[in-house]
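Researcher: Let's try something more involved. This one mixes different molecule types, so please make sure each is placed in the same coordinate frame as the others.
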Amino acid sequence: MSSSTSVKRKVPSTPNQTFLSKTFHWINIISLLLMISSGLQIYNANPVFGGRAGWHFPDFLLLGGWLGAARHWHFAAMWFFGLNLLWYGVYIFYTHRWRHRFVTSADIKVLQVGENVKRKNYAWHRLIYTGIIPVLLLAIATGLAMYKPAQLAWLSGLFGNWQILRTLHFITVPTVILFTGLHSLLALKVGSVRLVKSMFF
Amino acid sequence: MSLILPKNTLSRRRLLQLSGFSGASLLLGGCALNPLSEQVGQVFEPLNQSLEKLLLSQKPVPEFLASAIEPKKLLVNTFDFTPKIDPVKFRLTIDGDVHHPLQLSMIDIQKLPLTSMVIRHICVEGWSAIVQWGGVKLRDLANLVQPKSSVRYVYFKSADGYYESWDIASALHPQTLMAYQKNGAPLPIDNGAPLRLASPIKLGYKQSKWVTQIKFVNNLLPTKGYWEDQGYEWFAGL
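Model: All components are placed in one shared frame. Result:
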């Protein structure tokens, strides 16, 4: 993956991902698309910013067609999204992947004082994809806090008032979209098309 | 960064094109998926309902301080018109599978123990308002009429034609009230005077206004509630 094209250079080994990682990645993408598109339809029933008079998302971004249907999608896809993240958490914990597959203090050090551009890009890549996990967890926590605010009053109480709760839940959407862009670019930069392909197929 | 790619492999440009196309088609596909919404609801509503029933407890939901009340946030939603009811002539009918069916006037109802609560009222649309409701516990009314042991559901009929049905556990929750006060004052007509349902454990559309009949029943009818029959979730527990 260097800029050298010398004949002697070894062909870089094809990156390989475990079946479980690829499964997690696929389910995460599809369930998130369903969560976001149905979520924006729910948003439109009473926009977080400005209420009924606020700006509404255009139809082509929405799933369900109306509030009742969007809720059916949202509360169906939540099982796939939430449980997928849960088993993946158990998986990376038991296989100790969390120790060496995610950002470490070594990466942070590289970002601060590193000179090697490739190593720095790699550190950025690990930092960004690790950073999305708390955002996904925040989406679940704020979602549950609004879905069952009476029975999970302790959870809703953590977020102050209802407007803060709705805002935080909504903010996870642009955050995830921004992340997806950065993550894709960094993956291409770090491992080129081979790395991206290895994560999907 | 150049890379020696084997032939027939996906180029970066091609990959970006493909991801652009698939992203766009997924977005457009959203509309194509809309006709499946009802089936998705039919498959997942029972699962979600069992989660909601599991979470439901008879323990009171934590309440808010009176200073937290948000009088302007409670929006008025009606499905049709606002009925004007003479509180003197008003009678609440409580019947169905009960041992002692009753008709109560507002004076009878106001003689029963008054419960006040400051809770969050949450609309399916996404907004919420912290409200004080005062009224009689539905549980106390149930004790008067003595539902039979086979009763599992409660139907509520309203003067405007609105109808709702609840599971018995939620109906007998200690914070499920037939309310006649809002924010320390008599209940306004727009909010359901003389008598409405109020509870922290269900979404707003379950909380019928202008209730004239409470019916304890063994089974759900095909008509479960005005909005449920349009496609909203029936349990709607919070």
